[in-house]
Design goal:
This protein is an all-alpha fold and 400 residues long. It is 80% helix and 0% strand. The protein is globular, with a radius of gyration of 20 Å.
């Protein structure tokens, strides 16, 4: 299939949907954590390990599949990944033990990472450099729908058909993603632009990106912001339902409301980032996420955290996430030139490595406290803010 000359609205929607593996595969089953723990006879930390396993799989998968797409093209990698993702999602419905669940979640994350890494890469392949940030923002708008619809669906299914019903719904989503990839996503990397020197060229691309004066800083700010979000995502079922007393349905709706911030920020970013520049909009995002982290930390440590305060802090956090990650990725990939698969892989791998570290940390003190969540979010955002400031200063006289 030949590459289109530009990104159409339909293609942006398709890329957004196949990139939404993460939100669907994590947010849809969050309300089932307590049911999974009871049914499989394990504690909260063991169930949170299923989230960590998925994130590790995504991290490793992007590191492998992104550079592979620089060699063989985007479409073959996307299709193969989609097939394995669908099969592992179906197998999860029948997982008999937590050990099998954890292993399948790793396979699911590894294969599903194809959609995440290549959704970004195809968009940048087909966009002029100055407008790549707009395409990435629009894709995140589509991706942002997943946190709105997945938690309520997951919460309702959890109450009526149990956690295995939730996994069955996720399997259906995985099959639909595969069909969308086959039918709508074209090849975007011309043969003459593909790497032909094998592993040595791939390693050289990684080295060049990591040696760049700004790319690692943008990648670090990008990853740490995601880590803060994953700390919230991993802890929120227990903070919402155990600490604050929400029902699974109420929790799912509140999670969706909070997650709507990422859609709002990316709608705004798609309209104004080209005009004001991604550097300035990255500053806006870092400021918003830092304020959210401070708010959640103060409310938690003073014992004044309530359901409205929890939702408000989470909304501000996801609002800043949209500005931060879209602009940091655009600024980082602008420096990747003809190694965009490798660049996207580093961005994606770093974010999920940090996310995998953050997720279990929030459960170390048990299910009945929000303090670990607030502390981890604050620490992640302090580091993200520092790296973002350094990146912006480093490139002040360079290209945006």
């Amino acid at each position: 299939m030949s590459s289109p000359r530009r990104l159409s609205p339909g293609l942006i929607a398709a890329l957004g949907f196949v990139s939404a593996v993460g939100p669907f595969a994590t947010d849809m089953y969050l309300a089932s954590f307590t049911d999974i723990a009871g049914d499989l006879g394990v504690d909260a930390a063991a169930v949170q390990l299923t989230l960590t396993s998925f994130l590790v799989g995504v991290a490793v998968g992007q590191l492998v599949l992104g550079p592979w797409s620089d060699r063989v093209g985007r479409r073959p990698v996307l299709v193969v990944g989609g097939v394995v993702f669908a099969l592992s999602s179906i197998a999860l419905v029948f997982a008999p033990t937590i050990a099998v669940f954890v292993i399948l979640r790793f396979v699911q994350g590894f294969s599903g990472s194809a959609g995440m890494v290549l959704g970004r890469t195809v968009a940048v392949d087909l966009s002029p450099k100055d407008t790549a940030v707009r395409a990435l923002s629009l894709i995140v708008v589509v991706v942002g729908v997943a946190p709105l619809v997945a938690p309520p669906i997951g919460g309702l299914l959890s109450e009526f058909v149990g956690w295995r019903g939730v996994m069955a719904a996720l399997a259906i989503v995985a099959v639909v993603m595969l069909v969308v990839s086959l039918v709508l996503v074209p090849e975007s990397l011309p043969v003459e632009h593909r790497h032909t020197a094998g592993m040595s060229q791939t390693v050289g691309a990684f080295r060049a990106l990591l040696a760049d004066r700004a790319f690692p800083l943008y990648a670090g700010a990008y990853a740490l912001t995601f880590g803060a979000i994953m700390a919230y995502v991993s802890a929120s079922p227990f903070v919402g339902q155990v600490v604050l007393g929400m029902s699974p349905t109420v929790y799912s709706v509140s999670f969706a409301v909070a997650a709507s911030g990422v859609i709002l920020s990316n709608i705004v970013n798609a309209r104004v980032a080209v005009r004001f520049g991604p550097r300035r909009m990255l500053g806006v995002g870092l400021g918003a996420t830092a304020c959210a982290a401070a708010l959640l930390l103060v409310l938690t440590l003073t014992g004044t955290l309530t359901i409205p305060g929890f939702i408000a802090g989470a909304f501000l956090l996801t609002l800043g996430l949209g500005f931060t990650m879209s602009n940091a990725s655009a600024l980082g990939l602008a420096r990747a030139d003809r190694a965009r698969g490798a660049g996207s892989a580093i961005l994606g791998t770093s974010q999920f490595v940090v996310g995998a570290v953050a997720s279990p940390l929030v459960g170390l003190a048990g299910e009945d406290t929000a303090v670990p969540m607030a502390v981890v979010i604050a620490a992640m955002m302090a580091l993200s803010l520092l790296l973002g400031i350094l990146a912006l200063r480093t490139t002040r006289r360079g290209r945006r």
